[in-house]
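User: Reviewer 2 asked us to show a designed sequence for the structure in our supplementary figure. I'm pasting the structure tokens here. Could you produce the per-position amino acids so we can include them in the response letter?
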């Protein structure tokens, strides 16, 4: 007969679930679907995520490029610092393990082995650079969507998502205003060029390949 502790554990597991971690089985299935150069989106659990979601009217606040190395998949992302992160670790880090994978509609024609090599070479110049909390359009520091946008632009001459200015976003919410004041004080650079995860997610040049 099961102990009371075991029964309680089973009940709690059913009610609340053990973990949002992606299983090895689901990871293998995902690996059979995704390709080099795919773009993956998630809802970050970072301190600024909620402000980004509100300002852009989107649930997605973080993204990166999927690359395959020696049979294993990684996400090239701008965090602190810019780096390659194992795909499983990247997915598990997001809110509720949720993700969406997108791909260029004509990827088979554009993302040739030569182009993918070029993308990785371009990305190398950003490797190790710090995350840009001020969202400036420079290469000294860089944020997640800026990294992906610039790699694709330079390697393929394709612009995924519309470039905007900071003033184009919804800055009226108190959460957003508080975060902006923390970063910029009273000198918010409203004319700064910005590319958001939301703008890239909504791009007509991408198609959804997988989501959970």
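Assistant: Here is a per-position design you can include in the supplement:
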């Amino acid at each position: 007969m099961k102990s009371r502790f075991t029964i309680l554990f089973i009940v709690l597991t059913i009610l609340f679930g053990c973990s949002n971690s992606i299983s090895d089985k689901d990871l293998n299935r995902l690996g059979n679907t995704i390709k080099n150069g795919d773009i993956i989106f998630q809802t970050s659990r970072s301190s600024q995520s909620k402000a980004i979601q509100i300002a852009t009217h989107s649930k997605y606040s973080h993204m990166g490029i999927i690359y395959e190395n020696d049979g294993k998949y990684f996400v090239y992302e701008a965090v602190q610092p810019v780096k390659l992160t194992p795909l499983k670790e990247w997915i598990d880090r997001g809110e509720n393990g949720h993700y969406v994978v997108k791909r260029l509609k004509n990827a088979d024609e554009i993302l040739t082995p030569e182009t993918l090599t070029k993308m990785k070479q371009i990305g190398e110049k950003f490797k190790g650079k710090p995350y840009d909390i001020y969202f400036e359009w420079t290469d000294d520091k860089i944020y997640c969507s800026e990294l992906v946008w610039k790699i694709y632009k330079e390697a393929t001459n394709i612009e995924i998502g519309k470039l905007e200015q900071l003033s184009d976003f919804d800055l009226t919410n108190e959460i957003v205003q508080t975060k902006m004041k923390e970063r910029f004080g009273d000198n918010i650079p409203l004319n700064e060029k910005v590319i958001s995860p939301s703008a890239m997610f909504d791009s007509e040049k991408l198609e959804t390949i997988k989501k959970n």
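For the response letter, you might also mention the following. The beta strands are 39-42, 62-69, 72-78, 82-86, 100-104, 164-165, 193-194, 206-211. The chain has one domain: 21-211.
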